Amino acid sequence: MSNSLPLLARAEAAFRAGRLEDADRDLTQLIATQGEQPAACHLLALVARRRGDAARADALFRRALAGAPRDAQVHNNYANLLLDSGALHRALDHYEAAVRFGGAAFVEARYHRAVVLHRLGRQAEALAALDDVLRTHPDHAAAHSQRAIVLRAMGRLDDAAAAFDRALALQPTRAVSLYGRARVALERGEADAAALFQRCIAAGAGDRDVLLGLANALEAEGDPKGAALLANAVAQFPDWIEAQEELARMRSEAGEGALLTTGYRAALTQRPRDLALHLSHWRTLARAERHSEALAAIAAARADLPDTPELWLAEATIAVEARDGARADAALARVAGHSEAAVPAARRALAAGDPTRAASLLDERLATAPDDVAAWAYRDLAWRLTGDARHAWLSGQAGLIAAIDLELSATTLDELATLLRSLHRARAHPIGQSLRTGTQTRGRLLERTEPALRALRARLHEAIAAHLAALPPRDAAHPLLRYRDATPKLAGSWSVRLTDAGFHVSHIHTAGVLSSAMYVALPDGLDEGDREGWLELGCPPDALGLALEPLTTIAPRPGRLALFPSYLFHGTRPFARGERLSVAFDVVF
User: Fold this and answer.
1) Is 412 helix (H, G, I), strand (E, B) or coil?
2) Are the CB atoms for 295 and 327 separated by under 8 Å?
3) Quick one: which of 84, 428, 541, 585 is 20 to 30 A from 569 by CA?
4) Mean pLDDT, the chain, as a whole number?
């Protein structure tokens, strides 16, 4: 052992100086002549990781731990490698071992353990772990920043803003804190969100996410520079799909439908074999209900693209929506048995008058994806058409649907309506959404800081809790009732403003478990005989051509909240004139 110390010290000095080849040579010689020394294996693992050889580093860390299984630093450094490679569960095991053997003083391992818990979706545990770090190290800027990230993931945006502010007070130029604070400002509707994104850029943290956030913040302020910023970005980075999709959305809502796919066309001229870019282009056209254009684009691009399931799935889905049965059948035949083909194949079967086949396809899908909201929605239609008694279990139980009058005063509703109108800055409805002849707000409406919205959110939480308490008993097989006793969280929230003859086409909310509509203002003199503006639940989309009536309808009233399962198709009847102003949100658990 004594003979090994000079060589180990020399290797460590070389490693610290960045002379990795020298360190590698000395350590390899040391292990070859002196045997499996844990310290040498550990240092050589660090050298291998620094040189980008993850597989060799992994093997060396395991060899080091074989000889020193209680070495906290080896566990921690091995966990760092595993975290970088995405092996989160294994990383967590080794961070926990590092904490166990290193004790409370090993703050690095304690902090990174919380990071992994967050990435695994175990937010409550991550928050508790970070609070534990901050009890002993209250000025740990990274822990405050990570705590803010966890709080944001939990939907606690006010607390997240405060945690990011604390992190920035300790470390003003920390990029992740600057960006996180700007994102929270955008989501809360803070007036200085754009300035906060500009602060990120000034600090040298102007990556793509920051640029996209700035564009959205400018749009939220009514500044057309947001779209111009993205137009320049996609010209520079044509394969930046998220920016392409946001630019298309912005142009649509600005009433510039003729420019909807300009960015895509320029990009595909440069990258004709980029399948991901083509898929996004087709998806955008379909969301804009330009199905014929999307199908023509698929046909034109086929010669440049590989024959992949993704291509055929896209064509099948769009062809079904376009009611092109022959083309849908041909595309579906190419992906028969693919799990992602079940829903478009079921839609096609329903449209073709074969609900039995649709139900069978959806049975297979839900056996492996029990939370697929679209599969439940089409399964319900199939059960109704075949007379399956399970439809009553899924959608007919008393209490699944509720109309709750929130007893908001006329003054409260007027103040809320005035605020909401100020937030409707778009000129046209967004692509991919259900409304027609109207606009929809962006962002997370009920996370904004205005007192009227804060008061409404509190009242809505009370109504949601009361609705859940009144549901039928918990049923683990039911897509809503399995969550009856769980803690609800608002997953998204927005306002819709419909004007003359406006309505919602029948649709579902695939990101929710429980969905809603809360009426703020309605046209005077709605014709109740024709049920103008009424909410219809259970009415299938027109594209399916199914002769099914709504399961129920709900009359709109200012201050009334409708709650219903997200898998129920729902839409509204048009009204002749005036304004229909509402708030909507989805609930997850």
Assistant:
1) helix
2) yes
3) 428
4) 93
Strands 560-565 and 570-572, by their bridges, are unpaired
Amino acid identity of residue 230, one-letter, is: L
- What is the C-alpha separation between 434 and 416, in angstroms, rounded? 23
Tens of pLDDT, residue by residue over 341-372, are 999 999 999 999 999 999 999 999 999 999 99
In a domain, 418, yes or no: yes
Query: Backbone phi, then psi, for 453, in 5-degree steps?
Result: -75, -35
> What single-letter amino acid sits at 161?
A
pLDDT tens-place string over residues 244-253: 999 999 998 8
Q: What are phi and psi of 51, to 5 degrees?
A: -85, 0
Q: Is 85's pLDDT higher than 80?
A: yes
Residue 446 to residues 143, 294, 349, 457, 491, Cα–Cα distance (Å): 27, 35, 39, 6, 10
Contact 214, 197 (CB under 8 A): yes
408 inside domain = yes
Looking at residue 404, its pLDDT comes to: 97
CA 204 to chain centre: 27
Q: What predicted TM-score, i.e. pTM, was given to this entire model?
A: 0.86
Residue 388 sits at φ, ψ, to 5 deg, of -70, 130
Cβ–Cβ < 8 Å for 257, 280: no
Side chain identity, residue 322: A
Per-residue pLDDT tens for 283-340?
Answer: 999 999 999 999 999 999 999 999 999 999 999 999 999 999 999 999 999 999 899 9
Kindly state whether residue 505 falls inside one of the protein's structural domains: yes
The dihedrals phi and psi of 374, each to the nearest 5 degrees, come to: -65, -40
- Structural domain contains residue 538: yes
**CA nearest to 317, candidates 385, 378, 360:** 378
The CATH number of whichever domain residue 544 belongs to comes to: 2.60.120.620
d(C-alpha 585, C-alpha 413), whole Å: 18
Q: Which domain does 484 fall in, by range?
A: 402-588
Domain count, the chain: 1
H helix runs in 443-557, sequence order: 451-469
**Nearest-angstrom CA–CA distance, 540 and 108:** 54
Does residue 1 register a pLDDT over 60?
A: no
